[in-house]
Amino acid sequence: MPYNEPSPLEVKVLTRRFGLADSASLDTYLATGGYEALKKALGMTPGEIIEEVKLSNLRGRGGAGFPAGTKWGFVPRDSARPKYVVANGDEGEPGTCKDRLLMEYDPHQLIEGMAIAGLAVGAHAGYIYVRGEFRYIIRILERAVEEARGRGYLGGNILGSGFGFEVYVQSGAGSYECGEESALLESLEGRRGVPRIRPPFPAVSGAFQSPTVLNNIETYSAVPAIIREGGAAFAALGTPRNGGTRLFCLSGHLNKPGVYELPMGFNLLRMIHEVGGGIPGGKRLKAVIPGGSSCPVLKAEECDIAMDFDSLAKAKSMLGSGGVVVMDEDTCMVQAARRIMEFYAHESCGWCVPCREGTNWLRRLLRRFHAGEGSRSDIDLIGDVARNILGRTFCPLGDAAAMPTIAFVEKFRDEFEAHLEGRPCPFEGRRREVPAP
Amino acid sequence: MTFSPELEARFEKLLKSYPEGRESSALVPMLLYAQDEIGAVTPELVEEVARRLRLTPAAVESVVSYYSMLRKHPVGKYHIQICTNISCQLTGGEELFEHACRKLGIGNREVTPDGLFSIEEVECLGACSWAPAIEVNYDYHHKVTPEALDRLIDSLRKLH
Ligand SMILES: Cc1cc2nc3c(=O)[nH]c(=O)nc-3n(C[C@H](O)[C@H](O)[C@H](O)COP(=O)(O)O)c2cc1C
Ligand code: FES
């Protein structure tokens, strides 16, 4: 693992090939059980494959946690139009850096998962949409596709079964919004990444107006293990309704930040202290963003929590995309809220007025606030503007901007008050040195 | 306009990856790959791509203006993209950005007079666990300290 050392607490299912020599090559893949699941799936009916995925309790790893098997089941059996499988490798949610590793170290696992999805829904082509910055990953994926085709794991007649499936790699060109499923499909079709009005959902009309299964890279990457070992075995790794493991991206103020594969439901405090090595300089924990920047922040006292979709929802936050951002006692929450809003204001596609204008107002308010020029009424105004974005946009980017902002103001009102009346940011002098690599 | 044989081969492969009649799907990657070769999305490139994909230049322009990696003016030979989003901010990304600007004597989205370097403050690069992260052209660098950035810039400069 060139990026971070593994942790002994990890349960390696999707990442089990990470660190093997030439782990992205077909030979390594085949020597470690690769494409066994596809062979098995070729002997199953589509209904049986979907049942197995349902049984696994695999929930979408892109953010919303929708059950993957259920989503596959929405694709109409009979369709006059061809169907498609699309893998979302846009990986844009701040705090998230896991799909990159899955594509870099185990591209065949992803390809195999997509081919099995194709078999399950009756699709014969798949697209991997990769953010434009990941150019080296596009090369790795293209090589893997070539290799798989060359040896009959992709192509017109996979392993002599009569089933055909092709995979294509498509580059984005810089846009967070293109990670949103319908905007992604627009981009894939050569247009601006502006979201589509739903319904119809992609399962009915997605890529090229055809029925489409669209999942996150990690979601597809879990499929070979599910088919190989059985859905029940995968489910048993996690908690009820939250099957398996997931790649948690630990970042921020930690001694050992890194991407770690842990069972669903792993305790957040243990994740911080035992997996992530605790907080540098013996500082105290202040807050954690549990699943990428659009998830409402948790205060330190809320962090004794099982990291699964349902537990986080109960705590009025979200498990999101697995980006766990840890902040120590010296972190200014106004500054954090401001930086996150800079992002959403920059990335709003501009189609829905509440999102386009609201994120811009919030950016101005938070900038002003952090500069010490905020007034007491601004504190409520920030929450008010944010609440007026909620639920009023065609895609969830507006919510993604509003929800964390509301939480920052509600949970750290004292810090907003500490910035009032021209007072300098109370944390200004405590900005840290960059940690040694 | 003429492109390198490699780029032409890439276009050909791209155009074959969509259903019949859907070739305009290649627009976004085509623009990005062409920009990599010629340095910017010039008016000639817009015309050329529009012609090949049977789109209007206006339709192509509207796509160009949407994507942050597509740009109408060339950047430096080494385009230094520094993430200051949340995970990088927490580990010194903003200080790193300021340091780079001071070191090169330029601001955000500016190019040094010799055309060698440019700086851009960017959003999350997907490297949060190894923050602060930067990307120089398409090469990632992780856990970058100001000193490491100095060394990188100096070594790139020595190549010229
Ligand atoms: C603004 C926005 C950005 C998103 N970015 C991503 C992304 O980068 N990667 C991803 O997999 N899902 C992203 N999503 C979620 C997708 O819309 C979609 O739900 C997901 O890809 C479905 O896959 P899953 O069910 O396997 O999670 C984003 C959603 C929104 C609203
Ligand atoms: S926040 Fe900087 S790489 Fe993700």
Tell me about this structure.
The complex is a heterodimer of chains A (437) and B (160). With 437 residues, chain A is an alpha/beta fold. Chain A folds into 3 domains: 26-237, Rossmann fold, CATH 3.40.50.11540; 245-328, Ubiquitin-like (UB roll) (Roll); 333-430, NADH-ubiquinone oxidoreductase 51kDa subunit, iron-sulphur binding domain (de novo design (two linked rop proteins)), CATH 1.20.1440. Chain A is 41% helix and 12% strand. Chain A contains 17 helices and 11 strands. The longest helix of chain A has 18 residues, at 353-370. Chain A is globular, with a radius of gyration of 22 Å. Chain B is an alpha+beta fold. Chain B has 2 domains: 5-66, Arc Repressor Mutant, subunit A (Orthogonal Bundle); 78-158, Glutaredoxin. Chain B contains 7 helices and 4 strands, in the order H-H-H-H-E-H-H-E-E-E-H. Chain B has helices spanning 5-15, 27-38, 43-53, 57-66, 86-90, 93-104, 146-158, and strands at residues 78-83, 117-122, 134-136, 139-141. In chain B, strands 2-1-3-4 form a 4-stranded mixed sheet, with helices on one face. In chain B, helix 2 packs antiparallel against helix 3 and helix 3 packs across helix 4 (57-66). The longest helix of chain B has 13 residues, at 146-158. Chain B is elongated and about 50 Å long. Classes of the chains: A alpha/beta (437), B alpha+beta (160). Chains A and B meet through strand 3, strand 5, strand 11 and helix 13 of A and helix 2, helix 4 and helix 5 of B. The structure holds flavin mononucleotide and FE2/S2 (inorganic) cluster. FE2/S2 (inorganic) cluster binds at residues 83, 85-88, 124-128, 131, 133 of chain B.
